[in-house]
Write a structure and sequence with these properties.
single chain; 654 residues; alpha/beta; Substrate Binding Domain Of Dnak, Chain:A, Domain 2; Rossmann fold; six-stranded parallel beta sheet; 16 strands; globular
Length: 654
């Protein structure tokens, strides 16, 4: 990759240069030196038994003949379709397992909090507690919040091991969507059951028909989106508070030269929540001053950053590809990690600086890092130990410190509940205004743009380019994860961005409501918020009776992890046209790829697409949105009507 093509973020480029000067390794350097395996890249390599690995690549630069196709098999006779489907399905299973194991850990902490066994954790959102109780059929009556929460936690825990029936959150989907899942036999039963069955089916000698494999892959992904991820989001909101709009800042410039700098990195918010509280303790602040620091500066990285940003306004130091570069500044006392998206390279980079890499979860240890386990029973004490460890490291700073100047303001915290309130007010909370503005044409449609960064493409470029194209064409964009961070760094998550970057129609709505044209909904598990938002649009009427009828589309322009494939699969299965960029893992099988890119639409109402060019990706998404508008009869221009009082009363009566 060319030097100038590594990132479009100035802070990132500055730290890449500094890393080179300091002789420090980083992900950008390693990606230049490590070329991807072309056969593995297209999903044509099978290594699930010791007779392989078997490689069945497509012939290059020519159309495959029937004779060549007949020979393109593994030792056991597995075809290219079976091999590619198994690889794809196993990635989905791993992604679903990651999100769902996150949810299990949240549920365990939730139960401890409900029983008063986790000091520092309480029930913060009573309204959402009662809503979830209704969803699970938990009696409220005169019971205390703690009693209700305990029963909810116990019922949620059973969702993981459920062996029959349907996952409870599935009932939140539009009725037509539920009926389609039942008809196609992909309604998830139990979260763990679907992951285990997926791994079994893709074992050597089990399921050997690619359409059958992909059916279970869909069921497994739905167990993530409408199961583990949705449950994690709900319980986190109850325990830590449902996010509301908050102003903060993002990029490496949020680090402070005079302070003890601590970055919390990973995906599970329990530790981050406690760190955000403990760093404000006067005794801890005084301890930092005793070591020569002005104070303590806590910042986030990756999806944990999104969680504590939305609830505490804690600034974000960067997204996935910036984690090592935060150490390169020389100003970081500790990077505290839990699970998912943690680069092992952190430990190597830290050897060039004074930074301490601290792992905190027994499921995720790292050679070269120190381990301070976070115990939910002793949450305050665990957090305090970690912070004191960072403070003790402050005097060890060298003089090789360079913090980039770049930092950008952003507004985040747009949960489903907040959007509902902002659109309709306290007493008329509703998605009706959104639907009405889609119907009258001010808003063309809605897009979910999510996912990771990938060192195989230009850092942040595809996210920002795609989103600018969408909002310029009056598409409201909802974001989570590292994609949200990329656009925040570009200034797209401020209300004034509507006038600068959005089309006239979208800008007028954003200015009337007071929101940015790009809404930050949280971390990668919070993609469930987008599902609920889409369902709310269906239920408010006027845009069809299923998610697949809506003028909406999804994208992950710089996807990297297996979690992204699980997310994409459950969006497709929910009826959303979903485009991925960078690379695609089934190109080794023309039949499987066409099944995902074409046949899926007739089965689920949503389908996959691949396009590496963000401008062409935008064209695909806008084309799909326009097709859905035409199907709904919204392609004809409508006069904009100024409602008088009588018309407003009529609207209220509906």
């Amino acid at each position: 990759m060319a030097e100038e093509a590594r990132s479009i973020d100035p802070a990132t480029l500055e730290m890449i240069d500094k890393a080179r000067e300091d002789g420090s390794s980083n992900v950008f350097e390693r990606s230049s030196n490590m070329k991807p395996c072309p056969i593995g890249l297209e999903g044509s390599c099978c290594r699930i038994c010791s007779m392989g690995p078997c490689r069945v690549p497509l012939p290059k630069n020519k159309e495959e003949t029937a004779e060549e196709r007949a020979k393109r098999k593994g030792v056991c006779g597995a075809t290219a379709e079976t091999i590619a489907a198994r690889n794809f399905a196993r990635m989905i299973a791993a992604g679903s397992a990651a999100h769902s194991d996150h949810a299990r850990k949240v549920t365990e902490t939730f139960l401890l909090a409900a029983k008063g066994e986790a000091k520092g954790f309480t029930i913060k959102d009573e309204q959402k507690l009662l809503q979830v109780a209704l969803n699970f059929g938990v009696k409220i009556a005169e019971r205390s919040n703690e009693e209700i929460a305990t029963e909810i936690g116990e019922l949620v825990m059973k969702e993981f091991g459920r062996q029959e029936g349907e996952l409870t959150p599935v009932k939140s989907a539009p009725l037509k969507r539920q009926e389609l899942w039942q008809k196609t036999k992909v309604t998830p039963r139990g979260i763990d059951r679907e992951v285990v069955e997926m791994m079994h089916r893709t074992h050597m000698g089990v399921d050997q028909e690619y359409k059958s494999i992909m059916s279970q892959a869909m069921r497994t992904a739905l167990a993530d989106g409408w199961g583990g991820s949705m449950l994690a989001t709900d319980l986190q909101d109850i325990m830590f508070g449902t996010p509301a709009p908050v102003l903060s800042q993002i990029n490496l410039g949020v680090l402070k030269k005079e302070d003890v700098n601590i970055i919390i990195h990973g995906h599970e918010p329990q530790l981050a929540e406690m760190l955000a509280v403990v760093v404000q303790d006067p005794g801890i602040i005084e301890y930092a001053r005793s070591k020569g620091a002005r104070g303590i500066n806590l910042a986030g990285m990756c999806c944990t950053a999104n969680e504590i940003l939305m609830r505490h306004g804690v600034p974000i130091a960067g997204n996935f590809l910036q984690q090592e570069l935060a150490i390169v500044t020389g100003a970081l006392e500790a990077i505290v990690v839990d699970v998912q998206c943690i680069m092992q390279g952190l430990a190597d980079v830290a050897q060039c600086y004074h930074t301490r890499v601290i792992t905190t979860d027994p499921r995720a240890k790292m050679t070269g890092a120190e381990h301070i386990e976070f115990d939910e029973h002793r949450a305050w004490e665990s957090a305090e130990q970690i912070i004191r460890t960072a403070i003790d490291n402050f005097p060890n700073r060298g003089k090789n410190i360079r913090i980039p100047d770049q930092k950008t303001d952003l507004v985040a915290g747009f949960s489903h509940e907040t959007i509902n309130y902002l659109l309709g007010g306290l007493f008329r909370a509703s998605y009706r205004p959104l639907n009405e503005n889609i119907i009258n044409g001010r808003i063309r449609g809605v897009a979910g743009v999510v996912g990771c960064n990938n060192a195989r493409t230009v850092h942040d470029n595809a996210h920002i380019t795609l989103v600018k194209e969408l909002i310029k064409n009056d598409v409201l964009v909802l974001q989570t994860g590292c994609s949200a961070m990329a656009c925040a760094k570009a200034g797209l998550m401020l209300p004034e961005a509507a006038r600068e970057f959005a089309g006239e129609g979208l800008a007028s709505v954003c200015e009337a409501v007071g929101i940015p044209p790009v809404l930050h909904l949280g971390s990668c598990v919070d993609n469930a918020r987008i599902l609920i938002a889409a369902t709310a649009m269906v239920k408010d009427g006027g845009l069809g009776d299923d998610i697949s009828d809506l003028p909406v589309a999804g994208a992950a322009p710089e996807w990297m992890s297996e979690k992204a494939l699980s997310i994409g699969q459950y969006f497709v299965g929910s009826g959303v046209f979903t485009v991925f960029g960078t690379t695609w893992p089934t190109t080794g099988s023309k039949e499987l790829t066409e099944f995902l890119f074409k046949d899926y639409e007739s089965i689920y109402g949503g389908m996959w697409a691949f396009e590496a060019d963000p401008y062409k990706m935008a064209e695909l998404m806008l084309g799909h949105i326009d097709k859905k508008r035409k199907d709904l009869g919204l392609d004809k221009a409508r006069d904009r009507v100024l409602y008088d009082m009588a018309m407003r009363r009529e609207l209220d009566a509906v």
